[in-house]
Task: inverse folding
């Protein structure tokens, strides 16, 4: 705020120096050119009383407005330059005049910009968010219980949930901290808590398979990608043995061989069983109902935590009765059912009844045939039951204890633990209360371990652990910044040691550490937490699709989509690729499910394992064409060019469109009546000058992706309307289809580089960026540009930047 | 924003600034005295607020006639058996949800102002600012005698962060309950965690002695943390200190709760199986959350609760009632009959589920009557017509008898534009809280004890 005030004073100060000169000052270019231009071309609509788009330009007629509100001025220049304003229907200003006015303004704004001095700024004490808490506790104690999954959702600011100002503490959260501290410390010292055995039914909503009319010659014999399979992610509360059973549903022809069921854990086939469902047929020769029949697998050892659990029917089209014509038909002979005899019609049957009966008799063979066809692949895994845990391991975990019990005696153990938990060395007086708590507990008759446990809990609910508070601006705080930036967890021993010896800031050492951290698998946290929010990937978790319209949507697809984008992001980190690959990288990662989903069958990718593939010659490139992004930017029943356009502006260009002006309801695409294509509707809408200024940018970007449906599949028609994926951006750039759109985005490398820099810097600092950060962003972006846009350069320059290296001294209260 | 500045204000002015002002007599009386109000053993009054997002199709909601003999509309039909137990209230308005200079974002505003009567500050950043919600005003006073001051629930387990509606932070639509203008109370969405919040997560297989031991331990841990935090706060600058103070407030609150728990006999666990997680079907989910709310009242774990069927602007799909389209999207129906029908179906479905809740409250004995007799349950939305974003003539029901202070059964129409907060003011007054005002309230409403 102070910087703004100072700048506002500058022109005045300049005037104050002027009286020494005698000649009357020539009118400034602002008064001579800019103000008259505004009056002639803008004020007609944007003035008091008739402020279109809520914008009054009256206060911009004086030159001091340049210093007061450069942000607005930048927008005006942009709109005038790109021809968005004045709107098309209004008289156009002379081109030379536009050039002269915007040229002078841009120069003036740039000059002003150069004068902004970067500052370190200050991030408010940051409470660990849920992801950080989980990771930190895991690294600290060696137990992976993910207690923070039970915490309330973290509030976010500036698009991220690690912003100190936005993260608050409510009493229920503190209660959860206490519970979590109890749980993890007991698990680390005495072994995991005994979990009562229970039976849980898992469901996974999806659409039934469509009936087949003939057995496919080629299909997924493992069955993972078929709609009959069951997929879910389940959290096993503790390690141990679990009894998993598949509950069937659907119909099955009589005379089939036993089915072969497979159990998959995290994409690996761990068990196969043969299962012959019993079941009854409702009439001779009719289908057997297998609803609710349960096939149990042998007890399976599973580790604690989230696992992808799947059950499939293997070779689903084999072992069927011969008449179905499938491969390896059944050898079981079923006697031909006696021909169906209709009960005689009652004597007083009406002519209508007789006619209906005749019709039915005539259609019967056809009906039966249809019914049989529906039976091919008619069995599915309806639900899965998890029983357990059996043979729960009990007793302490040696690895976890080794991490905690370092040295001899409470002083050493707690001193060591607190140093790691607080991410710095403690003074003896800081440690004293925790030792006192230990002694008290011993005196009260608790065991040594029990007493250590109490003090560990106290450390875990201390604000020194729960908050990242920066007071000393020393190497410890830098180590903490680095590790939460790149790993979303506490600094490891290497970082702590370097901080202890005061070497972390040495340029060579810091650079080497940054490289080490980038290559460490823990940097995957950037994909989960940074990309998860930057690209809005987290929305995928609660994505809903209308299953009538999108029967292909199931859990396996959801998981695969998320995994693709995470792998893509990780590849950019690990292989240190160009950040421009986000826009048009010609590679991605797919498993069989996604390859089929994307229509890339020719690649012959089989199984659940992801493979890196080249996208050269396809319609896809970069993140924009990944299923995850295309799905989170769609409605449950249809795509949305407006949402997709906004996604590009928000996330790739960091140029969010302003919200619609007051009194104008937001455009709702779902209002489009049947018959009119969405494009026509939006074009109609864009004719209104008020809407045009934003939608002329939003809509064409989104239309460039119209070839992808709400699940990210390629299409050339939408319902009955052919897809028209062309657009013209304000300023006249034309393009057709996603590839050309990506090309256009890539032409403005500078905009994307600055957008990503801004986002990643915000995430790294845990605070919103201020005006004084602009030179920092600019400097980082320029270095990134000079060094081939490599991801490591972006990370390095952020870590070396002024606001990351330093922090403004807090103003202490008296 | 500055704490020093705040301190120089009188307590009364400060409370005004926060959107709520309390009459001094009540402040003086504060709580212990209040808790002894009424004859011993008398059942306490409970307050519940149920929120449905995106408005309601009003012609299918509002009865034509006023008074006792109105004809039930399609949305109210599922509540037929309970018609003597609730009011239908028309004419109430939430003017702070309406668009002002802050422009678009009616959904975020509707949710954030519904219980606060305060216009939320338009921001997607860290500086969120709203008001104190009616339930939290009540919780400050009625919440002191129960293990939990209040309970916040939501049947919306979808994750959203950042900017949710035209430049409004998601915090505004995620919670309708606000403890302070900058502290929303994030609702619990997982039934298992609601259960743990109500009855503790301490292993039920522990003996009473072991439980006691853990409680004692927790208290000594908190004592330590309390002292440590205070010391830490001394050394911090204003912004950091604000965060740590917030933490300290939470520590104090939990200390009080633990003291309360220690003074109680061993808590009896109810005959209610601990839920495993979020049920797949929405109806099961909503019913389970209602069950837990009944359980909370029944065990007197809390007397104040809020439950959101969904966050404002929710895009849940309801294929089970024939609506595969996203809820918010189709509320902008442009008067197409087919879509109005679909929205109505969602409205009816929500009313059915609400009927389940009321019936259960009614069937649960409590003191000299049923839980419903001793409750005040407000059901409604911060929007009436979701298509046009109308914030006046809101769809509101009030159920229960508030321990004899309400005489429900009629359709009342208040003067058009009566602030919704006037209703809260009246209800809280009858519950013994007696705030002077809530948000934009201008007075009390009449006729709730009979025309």
Result:
């Amino acid at each position: 705020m102070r910087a703004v005030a100072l700048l506002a004073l500058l022109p005045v100060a300049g005037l104050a120096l002027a009286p020494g000169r005698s000649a009357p000052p020539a009118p400034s270019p602002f008064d001579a050119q800019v103000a008259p231009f505004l009056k002639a071309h803008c004020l007609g609509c944007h003035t008091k009383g008739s402020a279109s788009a809520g914008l009054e330009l009256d206060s911009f007629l004086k030159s001091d407005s340049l210093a007061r509100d450069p942000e607005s001025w930048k927008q005006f220049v942009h709109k005038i330059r790109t021809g968005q304003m004045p709107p098309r229907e209004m008289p156009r200003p002379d081109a030379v005049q536009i050039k002269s006015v915007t040229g002078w303004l841009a120069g003036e704004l740039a000059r002003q910009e150069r004068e902004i001095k970067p500052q370190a700024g200050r991030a408010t004490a940051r409470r660990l968010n849920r992801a950080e808490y989980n990771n930190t506790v895991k690294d600290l104690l060696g137990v992976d219980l993910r207690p923070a999954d039970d915490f309330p959702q973290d509030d976010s600011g500036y698009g991220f949930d690690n912003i100190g100002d936005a993260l608050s503490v409510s009493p229920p959260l503190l209660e959860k901290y206490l519970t979590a501290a109890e749980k993890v410390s007991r698990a680390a010292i005495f072994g995991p808590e005994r979990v009562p055995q229970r039976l849980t039914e898992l469901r996974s909503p999806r659409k039934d398979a469509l009936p087949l009319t003939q057995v496919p010659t080629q299909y997924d014999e493992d069955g993972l990608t078929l709609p009959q399979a069951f997929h879910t992610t389940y959290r096993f509360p503790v390690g141990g043995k679990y009894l998993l059973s598949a509950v069937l549903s659907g119909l099955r022809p009589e005379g089939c061989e036993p089915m072969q069921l497979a159990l998959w854990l995290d994409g690996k086939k761990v068990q196969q069983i043969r299962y012959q469902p019993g079941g009854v047929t409702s009439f001779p020769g009719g289908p057997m109902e297998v609803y609710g029949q349960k096939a149990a697998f042998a007890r399976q050892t599973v580790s604690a935590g989230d696992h992808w659990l799947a059950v499939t029917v293997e070779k689903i089209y084999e072992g069927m009765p011969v008449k179905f014509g499938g491969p390896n038909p059944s050898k079981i002979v079923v006697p031909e059912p006696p021909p169906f005899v209709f009960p005689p019609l009652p004597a007083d049957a009406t002519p209508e009844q007789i006619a209906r009966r005749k019709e039915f008799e005539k259609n019967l063979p056809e009906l039966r045939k249809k019914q049989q066809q529906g039976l091919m692949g008619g069995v599915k895994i309806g639900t899965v039951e998890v029983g357990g845990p059996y043979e729960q391991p009990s007793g302490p975990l040696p690895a976890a204890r080794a991490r905690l019990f370092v040295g001899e005696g409470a002083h050493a153990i707690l001193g060591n633990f607190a140093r790691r938990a607080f991410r710095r060395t403690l003074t003896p007086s800081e440690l004293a209360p925790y030792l006192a708590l230990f002694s008290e507990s011993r005196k009260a008759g608790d065991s040594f371990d029990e007493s250590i446990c109490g003090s560990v809990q106290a450390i875990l609910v201390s604000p020194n652990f729960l908050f990242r508070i920066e007071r000393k601006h020393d190497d410890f705080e830098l180590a903490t910044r680095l590790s939460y930036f790149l790993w979303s967890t506490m600094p490891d021993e290497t970082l702590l040691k370097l901080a202890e010896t005061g070497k972390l800031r040495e340029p060579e050492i810091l650079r080497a550490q940054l490289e080490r951290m980038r290559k460490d698998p823990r940097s995957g946290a950037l994909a989960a937490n940074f990309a998860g929010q930057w690209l809005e990937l987290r929305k995928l978790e609660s994505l809903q699709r209308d299953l009538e319209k999108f029967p292909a949507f199931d859990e396996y697809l959801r998981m695969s989509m998320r995994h693709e984008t995470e792998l893509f992001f990780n590849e950019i980190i690990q292989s240190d690729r160009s950040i421009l690959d986000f826009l048009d990288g010609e590679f991605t990662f797919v498993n069989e499910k996604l390859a089929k989903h994307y229509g890339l069958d020719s690649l012959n990718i089989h199984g659940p394992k992801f493979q890196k593939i080249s996208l050269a010659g396809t319609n896809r490139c970069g993140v924009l064409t990944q299923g995850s992004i295309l799905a989170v930017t769609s409605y449950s029943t249809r795509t949305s060019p407006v949402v997709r356009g906004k996604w590009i502006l928000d996330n790739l260009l960091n140029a969010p469109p302003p919200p619609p002006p007051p009194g104008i309801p937001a455009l709702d695409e779902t209002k489009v009546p049947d018959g009119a294509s969405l494009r026509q509707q939006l074009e109609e809408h864009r004719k209104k000058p008020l809407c045009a200024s934003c939608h002329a940018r939003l809509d064409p970007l989104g239309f460039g992706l119209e070839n992808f449906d709400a699940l990210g599949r390629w299409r050339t028609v939408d319902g009955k309307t052919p897809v028209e994926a062309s657009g013209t951006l304000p300023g006249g750039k034309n393009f057709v289809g996603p590839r050309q759109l990506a090309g256009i985005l890539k032409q403005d490398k500078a905009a994307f580089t600055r957008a990503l820099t801004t986002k990643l810097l915000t995430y790294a600092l845990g605070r919103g960026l201020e005006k004084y950060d602009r030179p920092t962003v600019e400097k980082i972006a320029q270095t990134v540009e000079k060094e081939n846009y490599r991801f490591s350069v972006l990370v390095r320059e952020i870590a070396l930047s002024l606001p990351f290296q330093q922090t403004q001294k807090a103003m202490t209260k008296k | 924003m500055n704490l020093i500045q705040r301190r120089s204000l009188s307590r009364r002015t400060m409370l005004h600034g926060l959107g709520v002002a309390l009459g001094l007599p009540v402040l003086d009386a504060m709580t212990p005295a209040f808790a002894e109000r009424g004859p011993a053993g008398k059942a306490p009054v409970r307050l519940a607020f149920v929120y449905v997002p995106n408005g309601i199709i009003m012609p299918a909601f509002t009865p034509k006639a006023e008074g006792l003999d109105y004809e039930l509309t399609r949305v109210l039909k599922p509540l037929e058996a309970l018609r003597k137990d609730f009011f239908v209230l028309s004419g109430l308005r939430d003017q702070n949800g309406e668009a002002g200079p802050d422009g678009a974002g009616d959904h975020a505003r509707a949710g954030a102002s519904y219980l606060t009567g305060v216009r939320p500050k338009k921001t997607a950043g860290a500086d969120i600012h709203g008001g104190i919600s009616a339930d939290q005003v009540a919780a400050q006073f009625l919440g002191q005698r129960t293990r939990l001051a209040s309970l916040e629930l939501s049947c919306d387990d979808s994750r959203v962060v950042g900017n949710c509606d035209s430049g409004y932070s998601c915090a505004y639509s995620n919670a309708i309950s606000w403890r302070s203008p900058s502290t929303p109370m994030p609702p619990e969405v997982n039934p298992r965690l609601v259960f743990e919040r109500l009855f503790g997560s301490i292993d039920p297989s522990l003996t009473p002695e072991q439980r006691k031991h853990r409680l004692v331990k927790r208290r000594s841990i908190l004592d330590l943390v309390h002292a440590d935090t205070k010391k830490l706060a001394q050394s911090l600058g204003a912004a950091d200190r604000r965060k740590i103070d917030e933490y300290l407030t939470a520590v104090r609150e939990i200390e009080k709760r633990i003291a309360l728990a220690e003074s109680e006999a061993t808590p009896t666990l109810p005959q209610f199986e601990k839920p495993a997680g979020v049920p797949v079907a929405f109806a099961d989910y909503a019913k389970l959350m209602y069950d837990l709310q009944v359980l909370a009242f029944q065990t007197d774990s809390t007397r104040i609760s809020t439950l959101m069927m969904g966050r404002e602007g929710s895009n849940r799909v309801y294929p089970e009632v024939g609506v595969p389209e996203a809820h918010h999207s189709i509320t902008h129906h442009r008067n197409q009959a087919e879509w109005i029908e679909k929205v109505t179906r969602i409205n009816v479905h929500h009313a059915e589920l609400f009927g389940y809740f009321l019936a259960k409250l009614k069937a649960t004995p409590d003191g000299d009557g049923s839980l419903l007799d001793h409750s005040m349950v407000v059901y409604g939305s911060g929007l009436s017509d979701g298509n046009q974003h109308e914030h006046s003539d809101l769809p509101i029901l009030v159920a229960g008898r508030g321990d004899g202070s309400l005489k429900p059964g009629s359709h009342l129409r208040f003067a058009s534009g009566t602030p919704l907060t006037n209703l809260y003011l009246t209800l809280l007054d009858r519950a013994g809280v007696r705030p002077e005002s809530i948000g934009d309230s201008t007075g009390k409403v009449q006729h709730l004890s009979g025309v």
